[in-house]
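Bumping my old thread because nobody answered last time. Still need a sequence for this structure:
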């Protein structure tokens, strides 16, 4: 698309607006992210920490790309943003089995960005004719830029889809998808094509990174470490996206070994499903690992390793985040903002069923120190701990996984 260049005055106004757009208020970015991820069609993306983070990066990439282009050449058509951020999203969407309908997020983002841009434009001039000319060319520029970017990403998705229909990765992904969907495929055929025994006990894991600068080879090293922790030579690993691996190992990996391996792989996070037998266990363990990953994302948790066994209750309780937040505030009161040593003292005391000696030993602290911290907690709680230890324990678990302490 092309149009007549605007007047020098309008070009200057566009340049001034582009400078503002390059440094948008944080609340604008938050609204843009929320809008692009809020629709029902975007639920598969919003619930996936890797895809959601990539979408947020793409929002920023598109905003900066268009604004920077207009800073250099105000009013000139802007080419498609075919950089690494949007094209990385294209690869991941295809590897998740999503189609071009997921690109509707760009149209939603466009409408939000246009509203912000109109606010900027109205702050630049009170001259009606200047404002009309400014909005005419700039809104056409935004629309043409989004059209070109969506077309570029669609082409990349078609090419990526073609690549994924060939090779061993595509075959593994196809068989695993059939197993997860409960499709009629025989165990023997699946085992032969995967090179992985299905009648045994399985632990599934989701390995991912939300660091855009991470060395993605760390994910494969983490998968190997998970297998070693389960006494296996190699795992069954499927490339779910560029920054995500779906992994299965036989048996139960030693969590302490996995945690030690993660210390050497700082960009990697792991969500573990429970150990479960047979084809049904292969499926259930994977679904529980996904639930665990989604819970960590929902709570913006900083924890890098979590197993479904330890977070199942928290995952259920926080499926409605607003209600979970109200429960925590109502139950803990001022204890929610207490120092970590106080909340950890209460959590450990509850875990040891009210035995102060065992709790103090577990915390490597003196019994009197523990009692002082428990007394402080009682003063901060809306009701004494003895009246509702179960509710307090659950609220503290939410707080722990939410990264609140």
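Sorry it took so long. Here it is:
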């Amino acid at each position: 698309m092309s149009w007549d260049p605007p007047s020098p005055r309008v070009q200057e106004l566009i340049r001034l607006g582009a400078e503002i757009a390059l440094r948008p208020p944080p609340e604008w970015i938050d609204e843009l992210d929320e809008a692009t991820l809020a629709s029902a069609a975007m639920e598969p993306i919003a619930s996936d920490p890797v895809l959601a983070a990539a979408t947020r990066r793409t929002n920023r990439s598109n905003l900066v790309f268009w604004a920077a282009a207009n800073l250099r050449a105000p009013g000139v058509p802007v080419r498609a943003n075919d950089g690494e951020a949007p094209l990385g999203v294209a690869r991941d969407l295809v590897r998740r089995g999503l189609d071009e309908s997921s690109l509707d997020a760009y149209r939603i983002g466009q409408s939000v960005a246009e509203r912000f841009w109109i606010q900027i434009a109205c702050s630049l001039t009170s001259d009606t004719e200047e404002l009309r000319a400014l909005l005419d060319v700039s809104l056409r520029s935004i629309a043409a830029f989004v059209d070109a970017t969506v077309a570029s990403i669609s082409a990349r998705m078609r090419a990526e889809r073609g690549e994924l229909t060939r090779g061993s990765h595509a075959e593994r992904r196809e068989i695993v998808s059939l197993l997860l969907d409960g499709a009629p495929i025989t165990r023997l055929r699946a085992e032969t094509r995967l090179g992985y025994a299905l009648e045994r006990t399985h632990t599934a894991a989701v390995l991912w990174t939300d660091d855009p600068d991470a060395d993605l080879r760390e994910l494969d090293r983490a998968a190997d470490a998970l297998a070693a922790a389960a006494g296996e030579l190699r795992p069954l690993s499927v490339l779910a996206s560029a920054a995500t691996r779906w992994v299965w190992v036989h048996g139960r990996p030693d969590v302490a070994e996995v945690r030690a391996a993660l210390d050497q792989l700082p960009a990697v996070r792991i969500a573990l499903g429970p150990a479960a037998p047979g084809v049904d266990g292969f499926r259930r363990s994977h679904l529980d690992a996904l639930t665990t990953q989604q819970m960590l994302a929902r709570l913006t948790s900083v924890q890098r390793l979590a197993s479904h066994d330890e977070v199942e209750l928290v995952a259920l309780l926080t499926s409605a985040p607003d209600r979970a937040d109200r429960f925590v505030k109502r139950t803990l009161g001022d204890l929610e903002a207490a120092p970590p040593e106080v909340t950890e003292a209460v959590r450990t005391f509850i875990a040891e069923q009210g035995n102060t000696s065992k709790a103090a030993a577990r915390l490597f602290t003196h019994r009197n120190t523990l009692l002082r911290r428990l007394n402080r907690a009682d003063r901060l709680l809306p009701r004494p701990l003895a009246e509702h230890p179960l509710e307090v324990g659950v609220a503290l678990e939410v707080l722990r996984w939410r990264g609140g302490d």
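Residues 170 and 372 are 59 Å apart (CA to CA). Let me know if any region looks off to you.
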